[in-house]
Write a structure and sequence with these properties.
Elements (H helix, E strand, L loop, with lengths): L2 H35 L1 H25 L4 H18 L5 H16 L1
Helix pairs in contact: 1-2, 2-4, 3-4
Length: 107
């Protein structure tokens, strides 16, 4: 192979290798951004928060001296009131506050 043809082949190889490398970097960056801010992290966080909310709701309901249906209606009503009083707060925060206030009022 003549020297000129060999130089062109090497240049083409380097150009293709650079394109492939840049494509891989872009793909890895997109995957990293989606992983850290996308649906996967949100689902994991929602599962964790939802388990915490369930636990706090059970705790609050167990503290009420009434039947299950009445206790659930009471929880829903108080939670709706708390949402109006403290907009933007998470459900877990509101439930912790409700539990705190129930304990405080009993003392």
């Amino acid at each position: 192979m003549p020297a000129r043809a060999q130089a062109v082949a090497v240049a083409d190889f380097r150009e293709n290798a650079l394109r492939e490398f840049l494509l891989i970097v872009v793909i890895v960056a997109v995957v990293a951004v989606l992983w850290h801010s996308g649906p996967v992290q949100k689902r994991i966080g929602q599962r964790r928060r939802s388990g915490q909310v369930d636990q706090l709701q059970r705790r609050y309901l167990s503290m009420l001296p009434m039947g299950p249906a009445a206790a659930r209606a009471h929880l829903d009503r108080v939670l709706a009131d708390m949402r109006r009083e403290h907009p933007g707060r998470s459900t877990a925060w509101l439930l912790r506050k409700m539990i705190h206030e129930l304990k405080r009022d009993r003392a």
